[in-house]
Amino acid sequence: MAAIHLTEANFEQEVMHSEIPVLVDFWAPWCGPCKMLSPIIDEIAGEVTDVKICKVNTDEVDSIAFKYRVMSIPTLILFKNGTPVATSVGAKQKAEVLQFIWS
Fold it and tell me: Which of 3, 6, 23, 31 is catalytic?
């Protein structure tokens, strides 16, 4: 499954009401480290079925980034039962992202 593009319109349904954990990638198109992380996130989205993978373009939806105090990008936030349970800032290798998801 492809990563889900989050907006204010679908954030509540996709993240807050998800029955499975949700990994949200906060990114921007001008961000170099985000460009390095993006294909990794897309690859993971195509491989995992028990975690929903989503992306927030902070240039388009800065209100969500503000709500979760995202100060640097890329930032990954893992949500479980609608609650943020872990945060990771900066580009990561695939193994590091997977470890973040499963830790």
Answer: 31
